[in-house]
Amino acid sequence: MDFGNIVNNLLNQMAFFHLDAGNYAMIVVALVFLYLAIRKGYEPLLLIPIAFGMLLVNIYPEIMYSPEQTSNGTGGLLWYFFQLDEWSILPSLIFLGVGAMTDFGPLIANPISFIMGAAAQLGIYSAYFLAILLGFSGKEAAAISIIGGADGPTSLFLCSKLGQTQIMGPIAVAAYSYMALVPIIQPPFMKLLTTEKERKIKMEQLRPVSKLEKILFPIIVTVVVCLILPSTAPLVGMLMLGNLFRESGVVKQLADTASNALMYIVVILLGTSVGATTSAEAFLNATTVKIVVLGLVAFCFGTIGGVLFGKLLCKITGGKINPLIGSAGVSAVPMAARVSQKVGSEADPTNFLLMHAMGPNVAGVIGTAVAAGTFMAIFGV
Question: Which of 79, 83, 240, 380 is packed most tightly, with the most Cβ within 10 A?
Answer without folding.
Answer: 240
